[in-house]
Please model this.
Amino acid sequence: MGIHVVLVALSIVFLIPLVWMISTSLKPIELTMTKPPVWIPPHALWHNYPDAFNYGSSKLGYIPFLLYSRNTILLCILVVTGTVASNAVVAYSFARLRWPGRDLAFAVTLATMMVPFPVLMVPLFTLFTHLGWVGSYKPLWVPAWFGAAFNIFLLRQFFKSLPFELSEAAKIDGCSEWQIFVDIILPLAKPALAVVALFSFLGTWNDFLGPLIYLMDQKSFTLSQGLQFYQSQAGGTQWNLLMAASTIVIAPIIVLFFFTQRLFIQGIALTGLKG
Amino acid sequence: MSVRKSEARAGVLFASPWLLGFLVFLAAPLVASVYYSFCEFSVLKPPIFIGLDNYRDMIHDPILWTTLYNTAYFTIPALFFGTFASIAMALLLNAKVKGQAFYRTFFYLPSLVPPVASAMLWMWMFNGENGLINIALAKLGGWACWVLELVHIKPPTWLVDIGPAWLSDPLWSKPALILMSLWGAGNAMVIYLASLQDVPTELVEACELDGANFWGKLWNVTIPMISPVILFNSIMLLIGSLQKFTDVYILFPQGAPAQSTYFYIPYLFDNAFVYHKFGYACAMGWFLFVIILVLTLVTLKISEKRVYYGGD
Model:
């Protein structure tokens, strides 16, 4: 009994900010500042959502939120595809193919996980400046197509757990390494690949620092960057619209979570426990 | 022989994206970063070697030490309360009661909120005038005043006006950040929960037979069994907190109020991309790397005798 009370109380504490966000997003601006607070607005202003999408388009400070959504989704597709494809191929090589120097290369790969990103921030920026990529999306998605230590590590663990007899049998049947990889191993690795895809999607959707460094043109910004504008524009913050915009940014993640709950939890436990 | 050779060829071929990516996006930038840290270097001019000057400047840079102090001021309590809270929540969620699937979802949801959105959300929650937290505090303060007046005690003035300005008050901005970080503790919680489910029930039952109560079981069986996970999570949380960027950068441009929330990485970012002191920013990056390395090694050393790695 006691434990139920605690669980319910904590659930309320955790959910209140989100409920309050949605509540604020459906109010007219006057109603956001009343005391005592109004939890359920008498008339839900659903048009705050389209308003947030077209915020100030006629006035100063145009925030093309729909464009930002499109940019973000495009970037996510490029990053997720690249991450899954490259890490799967590389991890397969580390897990199931023998080549000279492999174990040394893998040890070095693991060691690179220690390097904090801030150390690389400036040299990567100068590299992308030389390549003429600054101001484009390339610095944000091209590296994803070359693998990343943590994902290689994760997928390698999984590939190693699949029975090696599968590969042997296929080899006797005359399959090439590529065929074994694509036709036999990949279909079995779907759950692990899904975890990698999921977390790379989250990372890209949530990323703020990357776009902040590399995107220059306001039209190319992502949702994370766009959201920041609501606060800085035109003095008095339109809290109702800002909360509507925040809801728009959060909602896809929450929906994704409900569809992939099991995968999510497995993924976190996997990344945490096997680390 | 040829089989072996063709396998090796395929292996190198399959690994080639990473081998190339490693060289271009990791190894070369790492070397460059070390070199730049010994250079005066801004965007347009090529780097000029200046020896240890950047590192010497860091020692005399008061803002750098302020940001380091702020980062530590946030990290230590965040680590302590975060670890405590996520283990406590995982224990609650591991109890065999009805509706756990719902509670787990509710506890976990906040950690899914993107950092930018969570910064916006808490800016609203912590708003001094109309924020929900201060409205609630004012209500509680009002009740407390009413009770005091009933027994004829004049309520102290701080109680009458109890809500601080939170994010715009140098004294309260960092506690506010710690509260925010606790709200998103769901990730660590899920890892703890998974590790709790791996604790062998025979051990707990044996402990019960010996007459141990809840705390006895917790202290003598559960905590030792999950200690490797506590160590792992603590190190991850430590590294993450030291590298805090997005929410503080959005909530506190230039560490306002009064640089009380100027954190290390936002300062590094400003040095690189606002003041264009690339060499200095690299030196700051390496300094942070050394700090992280030392703290991690110290944590591992301290934990050596306290972490139980099972029989294997």
Summary: The radius of gyration of chain B is 25 Å. Chain B has a mean pLDDT of 90. Strands of chain B lie at 39-40, 48-49.
